[in-house]
Design the sequence.
C-alpha cells in the first residue's frame, strides 16, 4: 500500500484526477462510437478496436511519412475511417441484415469479430509488427496551481471535449442527426415518414468508425500504431458501453470519464495491472446488479 | 454413429459399407499417421489440431445446443490449466489427479458464472463471460508470487503410468493420451445431446418461451450445459498445461485471440453438430500449424472464413455433410 | 379509382402467402373500411400496399400507375401516408421535432415546412402548446393525435390507418374518430383497417370484409350497417 498520507494530499489527488480524465476521454470517445452504433444498428461492433488501429496508422502515415501537421493527420484519420465505416456497413452489415435470423445481436457481433481478425492481420502483413509512433505532438508542461500536466494531454482532453460537443450538436440540431435519433427510437415509423433508414445505418456506422479513428490518431503518442493496438481500447470501450447502458451515448461518455478516473486512482493506490481486474469486476457487477447501466437509459436494450 | 448407420441400413447396403470405410480411413489416419510419419513436427501438428477440434466441440456444446456463447472461453481453459499446474507446482499433486482438479475448478467457475449470467440474453452473456475471462487472466498476471505471472509457470510432465513414459520428448504418448481423453469427452457429449437433456437443449434453443410453457426449466438445463462444458474445458486445459510445459497469461495463450480461434472453429464447423467443430479444428488448426510459414495470412483466412460463414454459409462445414457422408 | 389492389398475393415468406389474391378499390375522398376477423390479413394488406412486402402476384395501382418496386420510404412522396398500428411517436424527441420529421421529405424547402407547421398547429392547438415536451411524455390520446398530425405535414392525399383506436381508453376512442371524420371532411382518401367495427362503420363510405386472406363481402356502408351484427357473429 502506498503511504496513506498521500491520500490527504490534494494536489497529488487532483493530478491523478486530471490524468484519469485524459485516460477517460479516450474511453469516452471509443464508448460513444460503440454506443452510437449499438443504439442505431443493434451491432456490438467488436471491430471498433481494429478501426482505432486504422486511425493510428493513418495518423502515422500522414504526419510522419508525409510530414503534414498533426491536425491534418487527426482530421484525415476521422475522414478515412468515416469512409471505411460506411463501406463496412454497406458491404458486410447490410448484407447480414438481409439474411439474419432472430439472433441479430449475436450474429452481428460474431461478424465483427471476424472483421476484426481480418483487419488486424492485414495490418500485420502490410506494416509488420513494428510499433510506429510519435513520441510527442507538443512539448512542454503547464502548471495549474500545484498540478502540472503536459500540453499534449491537455490538448487530447480539449479535442476530445470538442468532438463530443460537436457530436452532440450534430445529433441534436441537424436533419441527419434527427433522422438518426428517429431511426434509433422507431425505425418503422421513420421509414413511413420517408427516411431512408438503410442510409441512416450507413451514416451512423461511418460516424462511429470516425470516432474510433479519431481516438486512434489522437492518442498516437500513448498508443503507437501496431496491428493489435486496438485490443485494449475495444475492451475498455465495451466496458464503458456496458457501464453507461448499451446504446445510450451520453451514458457511455459519462461512464468513460468515470472509468478513466477510477482506473487512474487504482493504478495510483494499488499497482499497475490491477486496474484491469477492477474494471472487469466492475463490469461483471454492473451486469448482475444493474444491466441497464449506471445511468438509466431512456430507451435501453435490456437483457 | 451407430444410429445413423442403422437408420440408413435399410436403404442401400453399399452406402453403409462406404461409410464404414470412410470412418475407418479417418480413424486410421488419426491413429497411424503420426507414428508412421515418425516426425515430432507432424505429431505436434496432430496434437494441436485434435486439441483445438475438441475445444471447438466443447464450445459447440454450449453455443450450438443451448445458444450460450462463452466469450471468455480461453480464461476457462486457463483456470483448468493453472488449476492442475499450481496443484502440482505448490502441493505436489500428481498431474493425473490434476486432470480432475482442472476440470473441477473450471466447472466451479462455470457454475458460478452460469448462476449469475445465464438468464441474460446471448450478447450480454458473451460480454459478461468476456470480462470474467479477462478477470481470470489479469488475476493470474497480477499474482506473480503464486502463479509466476507473465514470467511463466513451468509445469511438470505427466508421470509414467502403466509403463508408458510421458517424458516431454515422447510426443506419441501425449498424442494417444489426447485421443483417449478426446474420445471420452466427445462420447460423453454425444450421449448427452442424444439423451433427454439433448432434446431439452434443442427445445430451448429453438424457442425458449415455448419450452418453458411446457414446464421445462430452461435456466437449469442451460446451467447444466454450461457447467458440464466448463468441466470438460478444465480437463483439456489441464492436459494442455502438462503437455505444453510452460504457462503464461498472455492474450495469445489465454485471452481473446485464443477464444476467437476456437469460436471460429465452431462457426466454421457448423453450430449444433459437435462433429463439425472437430473436423473444422482438425482442418483449420492442422492447416495453420503446418503452414506456419504463411504467417499472418493464416489469420486473415480465419477472419475471412468467419465472415463468409456468417454471411453466406450459416451451416459451415456441416452444410457439406450431404456430399461427403 | 384512387388506389386499386388487383389480385394481390403476398406474405412474409414466399412459401406461405397470407393474402391469396385480394381485390380492393379505395375511391378518392372517401373512407374505405376493411373489416375481418383476426388473421384475415388486414394489416398485411396495408403493409403490402405500403411497400413493406412485395406482392408475388397481382398489382397495386395508384391513380392508374403501378406501385411495383416502391419501398416504404418512397410512399410519402407519392402522396400516401401510413399510420402504424402501435405507438409510433419518437418518444425521446420533442413534439416539434416529431413534426419536423413528418416534413422530412420537405427538408430542403424551409417555407414549405413553415407553412406545414402553421396548418398543423392551427388544426391541433394542443400540440402547439406542448411542442417543447418529449413526445413520450404525452398521454396515449395525445400521442395518437401527434401521429396523425405528423402524417399530414406534407399534405398527402391518401391515408392508410391501421387500427387507429387500438389500445386507447374508451373516452379517447371517440376523439380519434372525430379527428378521422374531420380528415374525411377535408377530402383525404382514407383506407382504414379496424377491429372496432361499430365505431369505424359510422365514418365509412364503403366496406370490405376479408377472411383468411381472401375477399369475403363488400358493399356500401348503408348495406353493411344493418348486417354488421350478423357478420361479426359469423367470425366467432
Sequence:
Amino acid at each position: 500500500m502506498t503511504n496513506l498520507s498521500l491520500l490527504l494530499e490534494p494536489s497529488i489527488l487532483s493530478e491523478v484526477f486530471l490524468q484519469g480524465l485524459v485516460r477517460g476521454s479516450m474511453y469516452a470517445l471509443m464508448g460513444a462510437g460503440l454506443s452510437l452504433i449499438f443504439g442505431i444498428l443493434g451491432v456490438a461492433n467488436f471491430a471498433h478496436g481494429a478501426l482505432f488501429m486504422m486511425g493510428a496508422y493513418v495518423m502515422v502515415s500522414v504526419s510522419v511519412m508525409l510530414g503534414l501537421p498533426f491536425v491534418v493527420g487527426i482530421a484525415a484519420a476521422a475522414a478515412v475511417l468515416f469512409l471505411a465505416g460506411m463501406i463496412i456497413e454497406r458491404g458486410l452489415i447490410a448484407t447480414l441484415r438481409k439474411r439474419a435470423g432472430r439472433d441479430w445481436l449475436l450474429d452481428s457481433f460474431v461478424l465483427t469479430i471476424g472483421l476484426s481478425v481480418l483487419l488486424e492481420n492485414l495490418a500485420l502483413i502490410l506494416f509488420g509488427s513494428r510499433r510506429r509512433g510519435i513520441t510527442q505532438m507538443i512539448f512542454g508542461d503547464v502548471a495549474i496551481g500545484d498540478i502540472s500536466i503536459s500540453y499534449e494531454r491537455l490538448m487530447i482532453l480539449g479535442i476530445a471535449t470538442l468532438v463530443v460537443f460537436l457530436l452532440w450538436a450534430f445529433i441534436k440540431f441537424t436533419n441527419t442527426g434527427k433522422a438518426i435519433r428517429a431511426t434509433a427510437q422507431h425505425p418503422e415509423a421513420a421509414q413511413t415518414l420517408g427516411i431512408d433508414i438503410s442510409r441512416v445505418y450507413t451514416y451512423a456506422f461511418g460516424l462511429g468508425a470516425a470516432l474510433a479513428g479519431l481516438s486512434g490518431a489522437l492518442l498516437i503518442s500513448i498508443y503507437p500504431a501496431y496491428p493489435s493496438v486496438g485490443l485494449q481500447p475495444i475492451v475498455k470501450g465495451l466496458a464503458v458501453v456496458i457501464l453507461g447502458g448499451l446504446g445510450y451515448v451520453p451514458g457511455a461518455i459519462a461512464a468513460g470519464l468515470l472509468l478513466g478516473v477510477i482506473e487512474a486512482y487504482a493504478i495510483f493506490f494499488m499497482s499497475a495491472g490491477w486496474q484491469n481486474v477492477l474494471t472487469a469486476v466492475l463490469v461483471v457487477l454492473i451486469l448482475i446488479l444493474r444491466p441497464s447501466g449506471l445511468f438509466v437509459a431512456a430507451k435501453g436494450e435490456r437483457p | 454413429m451407430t444410429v445413423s448407420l442403422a437408420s440408413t441400413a435399410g436403404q442401400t447396403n453399399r452406402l453403409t459399407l462406404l461409410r464404414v470405410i470412410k470412418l475407418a480411413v479417418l480413424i486410421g489416419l488419426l491413429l497411424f499417421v503420426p507414428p508412421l510419419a515418425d516426425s515430432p513436427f507432424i505429431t505436434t501438428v496432430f496434437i494441436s489440431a485434435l486439441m483445438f477440434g475438441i475445444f471447438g466441440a466443447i464450445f459447440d456444446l454450449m453455443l450450438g445446443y443451448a445458444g450460450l456463447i462463452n466469450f471468455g472461453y480461453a480464461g476457462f481453459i486457463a483456470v483448468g490449466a493453472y488449476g492442475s499446474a499450481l496443484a502440482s507446482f505448490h502441493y505436489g499433486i500428481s498431474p493425473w489427479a490434476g486432470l480432475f482438479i482442472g476440470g473441477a475448478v473450471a466447472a466451479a467457475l462455470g457454475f458460478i458464472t452460469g448462476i449469475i449470467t445465464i438468464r441474460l440474453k446471448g450478447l450480454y452473456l458473451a460480454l459478461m463471460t468476456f470480462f470474467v475471462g479477462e478477470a481470470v487472466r489479469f488475476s493470474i498476471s497480477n499474482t506473480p508470487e503464486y502463479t509466476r505471472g507473465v514470467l511463466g509457470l513451468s509445469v511438470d510432465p505427466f508421470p509414467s503410468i502403466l509403463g508408458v513414459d510421458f517424458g516431454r520428448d515422447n510426443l506419441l504418448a501425449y498424442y494417444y493420451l489426447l485421443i483417449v481423453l478426446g474420445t471420452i469427452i466427445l462420447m460423453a457429449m454425444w450421449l448427452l445431446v442424444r439423451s433427454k437433456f439433448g432434446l431439452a437443449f434443442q427445445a430451448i434453443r429453438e424457442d425458449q418461451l415455448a419450452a418453458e410453457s411446457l414446464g421445462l426449466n430452461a435456466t437449469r438445463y442451460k446451467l447444466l450445459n454450461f457447467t458440464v462444458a466448463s468441466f470438460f474445458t478444465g480437463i483439456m486445459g489441464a492436459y494442455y498445461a502438462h503437455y505444453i510445459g510452460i504457462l503464461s497469461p498472455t492474450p495469445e495463450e489465454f485471452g481473446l485471440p485464443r477464444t476467437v480461434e476456437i469460436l471460429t472453429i465452431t462457426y466454421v464447423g457448423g453450430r449444433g453438430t459437435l462433429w463439425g467443430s472437430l473436423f473444422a479444428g482438425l482442418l483449420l488448426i492442422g492447416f495453420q500449424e503446418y503452414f506456419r510459414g504463411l504467417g499472418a495470412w493464416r489469420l486473415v483466412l480465419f477472419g475471412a472464413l468467419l465472415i463468409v460463414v456468417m454471411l453466406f454459409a450459416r451451416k459451415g462445414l456441416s452444410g457439406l455433410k450431404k456430399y461427403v457422408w | 379509382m384512387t388506389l386499386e389492389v388487383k389480385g394481390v398475393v403476398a406474405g412474409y415468406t414466399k412459401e406461405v402467402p397470407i393474402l391469396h389474391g385480394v381485390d380492393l378499390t379505395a375511391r378518392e375522398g372517401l373512407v374505405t373500411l376493411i373489416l375481418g376477423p383476426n388473421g384475415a390479413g388486414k394489416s398485411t394488406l396495408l403493409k403490402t400496399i405500403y411497400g413493406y412486402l412485395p406482392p408475388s402476384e397481382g398489382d397495386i395501382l395508384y391513380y392508374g400507375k403501378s406501385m411495383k418496386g416502391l419501398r416504404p420510404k418512397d410512399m410519402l412522396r407519392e402522396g400516401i401516408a401510413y399510420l402504424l398500428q402501435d405507438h409510433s411517436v419518437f418518444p425521446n424527441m420533442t413534439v416539434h421535432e416529431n413534426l419536423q420529421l413528418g416534413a422530412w421529405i420537405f427538408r430542403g424547402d424551409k417555407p414549405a415546412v413553415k407553412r406545414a407547421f402553421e396548418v398543423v398547429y392551427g388544426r391541433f392547438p394542443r400540440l402547439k402548446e406542448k411542442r417543447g415536451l418529449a413526445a413520450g411524455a404525452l398521454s396515449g390520446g395525445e400521442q395518437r393525435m401527434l401521429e396523425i398530425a405528423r402524417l399530414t405535414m406534407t399534405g398527402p392525399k391518401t391515408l392508410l390507418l391501421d387500427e387507429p383506436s387500438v389500445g386507447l381508453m374508451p373516452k379517447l376512442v371517440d376523439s380519434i374518430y372525430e379527428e378521422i371524420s374531420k380528415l374525411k371532411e377535408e377530402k383525404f382518401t382514407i383506407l382504414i383497417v379496424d377491429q372496432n367495427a361499430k365505431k369505424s362503420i359510422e365514418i365509412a363510405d364503403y366496406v370490405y370484409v376479408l377472411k383468411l386472406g381472401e375477399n369475403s363481402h363488400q358493399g356500401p356502408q348503408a348495406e353493411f350497417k344493418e348486417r354488421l351484427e350478423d357478420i361479426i357473429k359469423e367470425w366467432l
Summary: DSSP finds nine helices and ten strands in chain C.
